[in-house]
Design a protein that fits this description.
It holds the Pfam family His_Phos_1. The protein is an alpha/beta fold. It is built from twelve helices and eleven strands. It folds into two domains: about 150 residues, Ribonuclease H-like superfamily/Ribonuclease H (Nucleotidyltransferase, domain 5, 2-Layer Sandwich); about 210 residues, Rossmann fold, CATH 3.40.50. α1 runs parallel beside α3, α6 packs across α7 and α8 crosses α9.
Length: about 375
């Protein structure tokens, strides 16, 4: 008999490194019923070690139940990305824990890894804090609610931690091109900025400099409309060189390149409908949003690894920026067709080493008026 479970896991330390604990909850996927809970002290260690310990405890508990399919959900971006194979494990201290978790994964028929916001991981978080409290000889903190004591409550807003360790990112769409003004699909075609686009790029540069007076890097899609926009920004933020990242390039729109939405709707109605309905569908001869998302996630992982705790500017196109923001906001695919990004619009977000993300602005355009 097959058993499909959800493992929610968390860990934390008070000091990083400091006294640490972890917790894990195993739930029946169909009903959400809690089947097992695990929590314990992790000694004196870091948040990431505690998070991996929570994952291992959850996988062990799922194995005890003879589960066949496991959906792992954690609010640690680092653990989820590393276990999914998208991020390298550079910290030698985490490699043995990741290897142990990978061995446990092999016991199941299927395991998936998904990041969830912290407020959706409250059960495991409560157990991790309980472990730390008990290790310190304390009763559970006032107001702390354990999984077995759940009651309806209004979610509390998340307060982001201090910015010292955050990688601060400005996402900038390139300035206008002739295709922008005509509302045409502009993917891999290398069209230049118009005079208006040049002015927009300079205005965006001023806005970015107002947010981040100094930046560690200005990263750009290889297409000239982005590189030129990035050059204006680089000149305003300390003169750092522009670094081209191939994976920041726009979606390949294939046969739709250079055409308007109305033209595509008329000539490819079925293909357009399928494309709007699923991110796995590509335009004829082009690239799906799923494929774009995969390479853009890789690019962002490289950025976070190369510039921890720094300010970085990423100059790209509509599709990559929308996909970055979709992932940062844990939004669904409908987000991609509901968000509008202006030429030279600026969005900002902060990313912490533990995977926490704060999206601060989306599509700022006041500098363009």
């Amino acid at each position: 008999m097959s058993l499909h479970v959800i493992v929610e896991a968390d860990g934390g330390s008070r000091g990083n490194p400091g006294p640490a604990g972890f917790g894990a909850v195993v739930k029946e996927a169909a009903t959400g019923e809690i089947l097992l809970e695990r929590y314990d002290s992790a000694g004196v260690t870091t948040n990431n070690v505690a998070e991996y310990s929570g994952l291992i405890a959850g996988l062990r508990a799922a194995a005890e139940l003879n589960a066949t399919r496991v959906d792992v959900r954690m609010d640690s971006k680092l653990v989820i990305e590393q276990m999914s194979g998208r991020w390298q494990i550079k910290n030698a201290g985490l490699r043995p824990l990741a290897a142990e978790a990978a061995t446990l994964v092999g016991k199941f028929d299927e395991v998936t890894f998904d990041w969830i916001p912290r407020e959706r991981n409250k059960d495991a978080d409560a157990l991790a804090n309980r472990a730390m409290d008990e290790a310190a000889g304390k009763a559970p903190r006032a107001g702390q609610q354990l999984p077995s004591e759940r009651a309806a409550e209004t979610p509390k807003s998340w307060v982001p931690p201090a910015l010292e360790n955050a990688t601060r990112i400005a996402l900038v769409r390139h300035g206008a091109t002739p295709m922008t003004a005509q509302g045409r699909y502009s993917g891999r075609g290398d069209v230049p900025l118009t005079d208006e686009g040049e002015a927009q790029a300079m205005a965006a540069a001023g806005r970015v400099a107002g947010i981040f007076p100094e930046v560690a890097a200005v990263l750009s899609s290889p297409l000239s409309r982005c590189v030129r926009t990035a050059e204006h920004i680089a000149a305003q933020v300390g003169g750092v060189p522009v670094t081209v990242m191939e994976d920041l390039i726009e979606c390949d729109f294939g046969a739709w390149e250079g055409r308007t939405f109305a033209e595509v709707q008329e000539q490819w109605p079925a293909e357009m409908s399928a494309w709007l309905g699923s991110t796995s569908v590509a335009p004829p001869g082009g690239e799906s949003f799923q494929a774009v998302a995969k390479r853009v996630r890789g690019a962002m992982a490289t950025v976070l690894s190369a510039y921890p705790g720094k300010a970085v500017v990423v100059v790209s196109h509509v599709s990559p920026i929308k996909l970055i923001l979709r992932d940062a906001l844990a939004a669904g695919d409908a987000f991609l067709h509901r968000l509008y990004l202006d030429a030279a619009g600026v969005s900002t977000m902060d990313v912490w080493p533990d995977g926490n993300i704060a999206v601060r602005t989306v599509n700022e355009t006041a500098h363009l008026r």
